[in-house]
Amino acid sequence: MNTKSAFAVAAAFGSLACFAMLDDAAASKAARETLAKMTLEEKVLLTGGSGTMTLSAIPRVGITKEWTMSDNSSTVRPQMKRWDWGYTEPRSENTKLPSLSALASTWDPEMARLHGEVLGAEMRDRGVDELLGPGVNIARTPLNGRNWEYLGEDPCLAAKMCVPMIKGVQSFDVAATVKHFCLNDQEWNRNNVDTHCDLRTLHEIYLPAFRAAVQEAGVLCVMTSYNKIDGLWASENKYLQTGVLRDQWGFKGLLETDWGGQHSNEFSANNGGGIEMDRGDEIKHHFNPKKETLPLVDAVKAGKVSEATVDEMALHVLYVMAKTGFLTGAPRKAGERNTKKHQQIARLIGEESVVLAKNDKGVLPLDAKSVRKILVVGKNAAEKQCHKGCSGEGNVPYEVTFIDGLKARLGDGVEIVLMPIPKGAVKASDDSQLAVDLSGVERAGGHLDKEAKKAKSSEPSLDEIKAVALASDATIVFTGTELGYDGNMESEGRDRSNMLADPGEDESIAAILSWNAKNTVVISRAGTPVGYTWVDAAPTMLMSSYLGMEEGSALARVVFGDVNPSGKLCHTWPKRYEDTGVAQLGTYNEKEVVYNERFYVGYRWFDRKNIEPMFPFGHGLSYTKFDVSLVGVEAEKDGGWTVSAKVTNTGKVAGREVVQMYVAYPDAKVERCVKDLRGFAKTKLLAPGESETVSIPLSARDLAYFDELDHRFVTEAGRYEILVGTSSRVIRGRATVEVGAESRF
Predict the structure, then answer these.
(1) Are 258 and 274 in contact (CB under 8 A)?
(2) How many CA atoms lie within 13 A of 630 on its CB side?
(3) Nearest to 330 by CA among 36, 21, 28, 33
(4) What is the pTM of this model?
(5) Half-sphere exposure of 740 toward its Cβ, with a 13 Å CA cutoff?
(6) What is the dihedral of CA 143, 149, 152, 156, to 10 degrees?
(7) So which residues are the catalytic ones?
(8) Which of 12, 195, 349, 471 is buried most, with the most CB atoms less than 10 Å from its CB?
(9) Distances (CA, A) of 574 to 129, 139, 304, 518, 592
(10) pLDDT below 70 — which residues of the chain?
C-alpha cells in the first residue's frame, strides 16, 4: 500500500505556492487612486457584469481588459458566451478534481490546500481571474441536490477545509469566491423560497465557514444566495451584507449576486448590495451591458442612491483587482494546466477521500494476483460524470471510470464483465415525493440533455447475473447516484425527490448479497446519503463521492490495496429519511422554510433523539487497526488548550487515522447539543507498529454559544468535557477542562 510517491508529488507541488498578492495597504491605495480618476458612469460599470462571466474593461483608468470568472469548485469550467449560457467553442479543457464532499471526506486540510493550488494554477494558465467557489452551505437535508458540491454537515469541518482551499487558490494571484451567502441549503424552488432561521442557529451552524473564509483565509469575493431570508432577498439583506459581513467580519472584498439573484436597483445598493451578475442578456438593474444603459446612474441623479454608495461598491471591486495584481500590472504567478502533476493530485485527493464503511469478513483489499474474472454490477461503473451537474460541469482531456480503472490496474489477463443492476417492474415506496421544478435549471447555467431518449435496453435477469457471479473470482456491486436532471439524480437547480435508490435496485442488490458469491464488495458512489435497505446484509462496503477525472483509478487502487482507505464520512447517513430532523418536523418545503430543528443538524439531531444512523458522521475504517488514546489536555498562555492523542498502528499494513475532537457541556446553563465537533487531525502514513501523537488546538471561543440578546458569542464559566474519538459515535478518551470566568467574543 504505497502512497509515498503520490505524497512526494503533492509535496513538490505545494512548495511552488507562495503569496505574491499586494498587501492590504498597497491594494487599498491603488484602488482609491483609480476610483478618484473615474466618472460616475465608469464606477457604475463595475456594479454589474459586462457579460455572463466578465466585468467591464475601462482602459481610460488603467483597467485594460475584462475581469473574467469561472464557475465551479472542482475545475475551471469552460468559458461561457457573453450573452447566454452556451460555451465558446472549442471548449477549453481543465483538470477535474474530486467534488467538495469528497474533499471534506479526506478530513485533511493538506488535501484542501492542494485542491486549491491546482485550481489556482489552472485559472492563471487560462487567464481566469475569479473562481466561483468554494461552496460552504451546510447539508441540512439529504435531499439537497448540491450536497455533493459542499463540505458536509458540520460547520467546524467545513470551516477548517475551506480555509486552506481558499488560500491555495489565491496563492496564484487570483480570487476565490465563498458561496452561497446564506441559508441556501436546498435547491427546491431556491429562486423564491423564504427561509427563517433564529440568530443563534444562524451564527453557530450556517455562518462559521463563511466567517472563517473571510477572517482566516482572506477570501476576496463572496456570492449571495438566491433565496429570501425573513422576507428579504439575500442580495438585499442589510443585516447580513453590511452588519455581519462588512462591519462584524471586516470583509473588504467584492460582493456579488448569484446569477439572476438581483431583484432591484436602489434598494439593493442602499442595503449593502454588490455586483449584479446574470446570464449576460439578463443583467439589467445596475448596468445593462447589451442595451448600454446605466439605471444606477439614473438612481443617483434622482437622489435615490448617493454617489458615496456607488463609490463604496466600486471600491470593493477595485480592491480585489488590485490585490491580485490585475489592476496594477504587478507580476502575477504563472500557471499550468492539465499536467501529469495535477492529474496525480486529483487521484491522490480521491484516494484519501474513499471511506471503508464495512469490512466484516476482511474481503478487502482484493488480491490482484488471484483474480482472473470480475463481475461488476451497475451501469454507473462505466458512466462518465465530469460533464454533468450544472455548476459542477467540466470539460476534461480524459475521464477514468471505475471500469477503466479496473482494466488499467489488472491488465489484459483478467476478464471484466459489466452488467446493469436489474430494476424490473419493482416500485419502491416514496418517502418524500416532491414536485421538483426544473424551470430554473437553464437560467442557473445548466445544460439540459436535449438528445432523444434512447430505447431502453433489455435488462439481464437475476438468474443470469447469478450465474456469472458464481463463476467469478469477485463480484463488485457499483451503486449510488449519478449527476444529471433525470429521475432521482443530483444536480444544481433541483433536489432529489426522495432519499431512496432507483426503484427496484435495493431488491436486486439484496438478492445479489444473499448468494454469498466469492469476494462480494459493494461500492456506493453518491454525493449525499442514500437510504439503502440492504446494508446489514453487506459485509463489505466502500463509499465515495464524485471523484473527478481520476475516479476509476482512485477506486481501483483502494479495492486492490495499493492505497489503504482513510476517508471519513462528512455526512450522517440515516437509515430512513423519516429519521432526519427536517422530515420529523416538516420543515422542508418550497415556500416558507423554518429552521425549527435549530442547531440540531446532522449528527447533533441523531444524538439528541438517540436515533441510530446507518453510518455515523466521521465514520471510516481501515485495512489496518489503530489504537487511539487521549494523552492529555495542556493549558496554553492565551487561555486555550492543546489536546493531544496518541495513535498507534497495531495492524499489519501502513495506514492513516483521523482523530476527532468533540466538546460536551455538563455545566451548561443554556441549551447545548450533546456534543459538537471542535477540531480534528489526520496522522501521517503510519507503518505497522509506528505511533504518532497529534495535537489539536482548542480555544475558549470554541466552547461558546451565540447570545441572541447581546449579539456575541459567550463562553460560560464551568466544566467542559473533551471527547476524542474516531467518529461521532466512537469515543476513545475523555478529559475535562475548567473555565474560571465567562468571556464574550
Answers:
(1) no
(2) 20
(3) 21
(4) 0.95
(5) 3
(6) -140
(7) 258
(8) 349
(9) 40, 13, 51, 29, 25
(10) 1-20, 424-457
